Every structure is written in C-alpha cells, then in structure tokens.
Amino acid sequence: MRLPDFRCTENTGGRNYVKPIESRELWLVRNDRLIRVIRTLSTLTLFAAGVAGVLSAQKPVFTENFESGKIDAAVWDTRVAGTATIAVEPVEGGRGKYALHVHYPDMAAASYAFVVATHLPETVRTHFFGRAYMKVSQSLGNTHNPLIFAGEPGWQLSKFHEIGTSRGFWMPSYQENKSLRGQGRGEITFRSETMPIYDKWFLVEWEFNDDPSAITMWIDGEKMQVPVNGEKVDTVKFEWPKGSGTVKNLVGGYQEFGFGARVWGAPPTGFDIWYDDIAIGTSRLGPAK
Ligand SMILES: [Ca+2]
C-alpha cells in the first residue's frame, strides 16, 4: 500500500519545517482505529443476523386474514350442524375488508359452526401460541359456548383444549369428548371472572401446552387471571383423569385448530361472532403487524 505524503509544513517563528514522522504515526493510529471500527461493525452485523434469526423463529407458522373473501377449502374444513352458520363476509370497521362471521340463531339447539385448520406443521404439535381478533355482538348468555379449540383429529368427538365462555365469562378447559359417557368422557373447566368485550374488536391470545397440559390467555395484551382453589393464577393446569397424576399428552398432539361457536343447550338469544387476523406460532405473537 502506498502511504500518503506525510510531509507537512509548519511555520514557527517565521521558519518553515517539515514533520513527516509524526504525521505518519498519526496516519497509522487512524488506520488502526479504522480497522477496529470495521471489526466492531462486523461484530454488530453478526449480532444483527442473530437477532434476525430469533425474530424469524417468532414468525407465525399459520396466518389467515380472510381477505380472499371466502373460506379457503385448501386451508379449512367447515364443520356445521343445526342452524348455526359460518362464512367470510365484508365487515365495516373490521380488520381489512373481510372477516370470518359466525351466526348463532335464537333458541338454536344442537348446533355448531366451525372452520378447522388441519395442516399445521409438527412444530406446533405439542405446544403453541395463538392469536385472533374477535368481535362479539352481545352477551353470550349463561350457556357453555365453545369458541376456539385445538386437539387431535375428529372434533367434535375428540380430545382438545378449548377457549369458551360459561355464565358469560371466559372459560379455558380440557375436553375429553372422544369417549362415551361413563367411559372416560368428561372435562376440566376453569371459569374466569373476565367477560368478553362486546360490540368491539379485541385481541385474544392464548398458549396451549400438552406437556404439561395447560392454558394461558391474554385479552388485549393483558394476561387473564383465573381463580383456582381460591387463588388467582395466570395459567390453568389440567390433570386427566382427575386425581391420576397424568398431566401430559392429554390431547395427544394438536392436529386440528378450530374457530367458530357451539352452544351446549339452547340460548334464548342468539349471537354473532367475528374472527380475523388469526395466527399460530411457536412463541407469543402479539398484535398483527
Ligand atoms: Ca380481514
């Protein structure tokens, strides 16, 4: 490398002289600083790549914003019984133009309407986080209303974790709906003291775990506490059969992810529920970007 010309002229007391060595040293010091800056930048670049890797790991494995304007049959199984209906429709004031709309009529009995995603990857088989924006038209009444579930194949005759409501409050639960009554069928429910927000879009997030079996929920970013044995807890845990000590593999792997509405009983007054910007991932997802 050719060094620059270091000679510089100073005027001291009317005499000019040259100080080449000092300038050369200065150049070398500066060059050394430059190398250190380059090394620091390289380290920062590697760090940034690491952060990007972590962030990409947080990307959802599944998203649905319904902006195609229809229930995509390649993504969703539609499971409907009785008079409840489910469809993708334009929604004023929603998230984008379209959302998933479930209508549950007055006095409807033995009815449900769900869309179920069945092709999610192995990475969310045992443990996953979910997010959805929801709007609920009015009180969901006192009945037990399953709304969101994840479980083994075959819903509604399957084992699954569920988010529903009961007596008008959010209620996470474990459901063994696979076996016949008296032959293992049953449920573990934890009714909260938190009501759904009505007539307004809100964000619901959840963490489902099959090892150990547990559910955590957030409403508009705030962790929902649930009373268990007189104490408020952030996470409800399941043991099945009750008293068995078995707390893992209750669901047997999440292979179906369902969104809709069902009512055990017949609500005097029907209701409407909208879902939008649904996402599933391996870590907490937060609001839609
Ligand atoms: Ca939408």
SSE string, helix = H, strand = E? Answer: EEHEEEEEEEEEEEEEEEEEE
Portion in beta strands? 35-45%
Mean of residue pLDDT values: 88
CATH class of the largest domain: Mainly Beta
Class by alpha and beta content: mainly beta
List the total number of helices: 1
Low-confidence stretches: none
**Mind summarizing the main beta sheet?**
9 strands, antiparallel
Which helices and strands occur, and which strands form pairs?
Elements: E1 9-12, E2 15-18, H1 20-57, E3 62-64, E4 76-81, E5 85-90, E6 98-104, E7 112-117, E8 127-136, E9 145-151, E10 159-166, E11 169-176, E12 186-189, E13 202-210, E14 213-219, E15 222-223, E16 226-228, E17 231-233, E18 235-237, E19 256-262, E20 271-281
Antiparallel strand pairs: 1-2, 3-20, 4-7, 5-6, 6-20, 7-19, 8-13, 8-20, 9-10, 9-19, 10-11, 11-12, 13-14, 14-15, 14-18, 16-17
Q: What would you note in describing this structure?
A:
The protein folds into two domains: 9-56; 61-281, Jelly Rolls (Sandwich), CATH 2.60.120. It is mainly β and 289 residues long. The protein has one helix and 20 strands. The two termini are 50 Å apart. The protein binds calcium ion (CA). Calcium ion (CA) is lined by residues 65-67, 95-96, 98-99, 276.
Brief characterization of the structure:
The protein is 13% helix and 41% strand. The chain is mainly beta and 289 residues long.
Please give a handful of descriptors for the protein shown:
289 residues, mainly beta, nine-stranded antiparallel beta sheet, 13% helix, globular, binds calcium ion, 20 strands, single chain, seven-stranded antiparallel beta sheet, Jelly Rolls, 41% strand
